[in-house]
Design brief:
Chain B: InterPro entries: D-isomer_2-hydroxyacid_DH (IPR050223), D-isomer_2_OHA_DH_cat_dom (IPR006139), D-isomer_DH_NAD-bd (IPR006140), NAD(P)-bd_dom_sf (IPR036291). The structure holds two protein chains of two kinds. Chain A is of the alpha/beta class. Chain A has helices spanning 14-23, 35-42, 59-64, 83-89, 101-116, 119-127, 154-164, 189-194, 215-221, 238-246, 285-303; strands spanning 5-8, 25-28, 46-52, 70-74, 92-94, 147-150, 170-173, 184-185, 198-201, 226-229, 252-255, 274-276. The two termini of chain A are 23 Å apart. Chain B contains twelve helices and twelve strands. The chains are: A alpha/beta, B alpha/beta.
Chain lengths: 313, 342
């Protein structure tokens, strides 16, 4: 399979890169000085694209690669892939579900605890030497707080299961109410926000869910409410969120994703009720390895004409 | 909860509760947050008299003492209070109270009971996720603008499936276990005695527990037996992929040895709410991104403090009405800590 051209959209994992290099003819898109002329000269050799949460395969790229057969994403989110175009052209698409579910859910809870209990600020307090002068402020108890989840897929359910262990009452919003779910359903995000203490975004990013967290939702969540985003930056109207936090109209936020990564609004840097992470939801040694193995496994299965491991299209 | 303010002169009939040093609640909520119409406070720290003299002057009036971690109740103090019948502490820990002397004198002791268990357990989980997933370190990284300039942050470690070893399976340890099970962790423990109805694996000593877990959580009381329980041997058994979380008492860990292991990379990381000589913290830890620290505030939430205030007042009121205490400590089987905090 060493002659099969695989285009890697951006750097994502050195083990994955190494393995793809060994098994295929790997092209590292980010090292190419002139992308359009590269595509023009290599269009007949590239049969696969490997993308991630940051870069995938949009209509333009797909059109430029007539021999493209498969797009394998190093992520579970598919918002960077033009799925309709892939379907139209018979291009297979795979992602990395399940292997990262636990890590993302763990991080969501970790962010809830970090924001409510001011863990990062407490750590800073100790490191600054201020503890010698006096105790740190009181924080907010997490156990028993109402957790509202947007999206009750694998990740949403995993978050619910964890939060339940802290006696948190769980409520949720999804496009349609799910049967056999014991959690309280709200038919709109605003209503969900109005009835919970902590609101967490755990749904896929689509046209419908773009800016699902808007001014109205933020107002409903309120000055004691906390927003946790482990989905995608564009789920949140970021300027609205920033002004709500700066003006203390929202109680706090734990954010792993942003509209324009790696750029994070600097107004958030000085806020002690905000925890900011550099998109590390699935960022563990164990999980990235499992994700890489899935990408490789899917590509090999495809080119060996075997069933794909985790197909989406 | 807090009663209306009362002047000094009108309650000569009300029994006295002695306070040696103000509890944390006073600094946070003011001096009257623990007031009650059924008793009054005698504040030793407001008197110009040296303590022994103060105690001597008021010895006959004091039936109860309000203690907290920074206001220990020593044998010397107890000795000077012949009418002492109750010590109520705002803490869950009892290492600052001479329990043998209380037992000998028939003095009842009441603590924070289960008030703090959830908050402590929440802190444990928060610190553990923070250490493994590098939350505080990554937050620092982003807030310093380094994500856009220096790029991708190093990977953390998965919590799911990790083996968690709990030292001390009391009310806090049990709450920790319940939470971490939901994250897919397997739970084992060491306690003074094996607990028959508990589904977790028991190890008869801490070295074996450490050798068989990825995250060692300290949830036990500080006593003579547990002083420096976590020593070189235990840390070595925990190993370079192991993490330690301490929300109990600093002196349970040999801090010098812990610092050495962390600096040398002999264990993976640590989450520490308590230290041997608070508020002094070994400065070597400030250089490390795999250590998360908090200023002994694992229980300092608004909600718990409100619950605690009700409990403290409730205990004193019960005592003075000859009713059962709300959160009595059974002294008979409790080991003592003679190390004493000053």
């Amino acid at each position: 399979m060493e002659s099969i051209g695989v285009l890697m959209a951006c750097p994502m994992n050195s083990y994955l890169e190494q393995q793809l290099d060994k098994r295929f003819k790997l092209y590292r898109f980010w090292t190419v000085p002139d992308k359009s002329s590269f595509l023009a000269s290599h269009k007949d050799s590239i049969q696969a694209v490997v993308g991630n949460a940051g870069a995938g395969a949009d209509a333009e790229l797909i059109e430029a690669l007539p021999k493209l057969e498969i797009v394998a994403s190093f992520s579970v989110g598919l918002d960077k892939i033009d799925l309709a175009k892939c379907k139209e052209k018979g291009i297979r698409v795979t992602n990395t579900p399940d292997v990262l579910t636990e890590d993302v859910a763990d991080l969501a809870i970790g962010l809830m605890l970090a924001v409510l209990r001011k863990l990062c600020e407490s750590d800073r307090y100790v490191r600054s030497g201020k503890w010698k002068k006096g105790d740190y402020v009181l924080t907010t108890k997490f156990t028993g707080k109402k957790v509202g989840i947007i999206g009750l897929g694998r990740i949403g359910m995993a978050i619910a299961k964890r939060a339940e262990a802290f006696s948190c009452p769980i409520s949720y919003y999804t496009r349609t109410e799910k049967p056999d779910i014991k959690y309280k359903y709200y038919p709109s995000v605003v209503e969900l926000a109005a009835h919970c203490d902590i609101l967490v975004v755990a749904c896929p990013l689509t046209k419908e869910t773009h800016h699902i967290i808007n001014r109205e939702v933020i107002d409903a969540l309120g000055p004691k409410g906390v927003l946790i985003n482990i989905g995608r930056g564009p789920h949140v109207d970021e300027p609205e969120l920033v002004s709500a936090l700066v003006e203390r109209r929202l109680g706090g936020a734990g954010l792993d994703v942003f509209e324009n990564e790696p750029y994070v609004p600097e107004e958030l840097f000085g806020l002690d009720n905000v925890v900011l992470l550099p998109h590390v939801g699935s960022g563990t040694v164990e999980t990235r390895q499992a994700m890489a193995d899935l990408v490789i496994g899917n590509l090999e299965a495809h080119f060996q004409k075997k069933p794909l491991l985790t197909p989406v299209v | 909860m807090a009663a209306e303010n009362q002047s000094h002169t009108s309650q000569s009939d009300l029994p006295y509760v002695l306070i040696l040093k103000p509890p944390p609640s006073f600094a946070l909520f003011g001096d009257h947050v623990l007031d009650s119409p059924r008793f009054q406070y005698l504040k030793a720290y407001e008197s110009p008299l040296p303590l022994p003299q103060f105690l001597h002057t008021h010895a006959h009036s004091v039936q109860a003492v309000l203690s907290s971690g920074r206001a220990p109740v020593t044998a010397d103090t107890i000795c000077l209070l012949p009418r002492l019948g109750l010590v109520v502490t705002t803490s869950q820990g009892l290492n600052h109270i001479d329990l043998s002397e209380c037992r000998r004198r028939g003095i009842a002791v009441a603590s924070a009971g289960n008030t703090y268990s959830a908050d402590c357990a929440d802190s444990v989980v928060g610190l553990l996720i923070d250490v493994l997933r590098k939350i505080s370190a990554a937050n620092r990284y982003v807030k310093q603008g380094l994500w856009s300039s220096q790029g991708v942050y190093p990977l953390g470690y998965k919590l799911g499936g990790k083996r968690v070893g709990i030292v001390g399976l009391g009310s806090i340890g049990t709450e920790v276990a319940k939470r971490l099970e939901a994250f897919g962790c397997s739970i084992s423990y060491n306690s003074r005695t094996k607990k028959p109805l508990v589904p977790y694996t028991f190890y008869p000593n801490v070295v074996q527990l450490a050798a068989n877990c990825d995250a060692l959580i300290i949830c036990c009381a500080l006593t003579d037996e547990t002083y420096h329980l976590i020593n070189k041997e235990v840390l070595s058994a925990l190993g370079k992929d192991g993490v330690i979380i301490n929300i109990a008492r600093g002196p349970i860990i040999d801090e010098k040895e812990l610092v050495r292991c962390l600096v040398k990379g002999e264990i993976r990381g640590a989450g520490l709410d308590v230290f041997e000589h608070e508020p002094d913290v070994p400065v070597e830890l400030f250089e490390l991104d795999n250590v998360v620290m908090s200023p002994h505030n694992a229980v300092f939430t608004r909600e718990s403090f409100e619950d605690l205030c009700k409990l403290v007042v409730g205990n004193f009121e019960a005592f003075f009405s000859n009713e059962p205490l709300l959160s009595p400590v059974a002294l008979d089987h409790l080991p003592h800590f003679s190390g004493g905090k000053d």
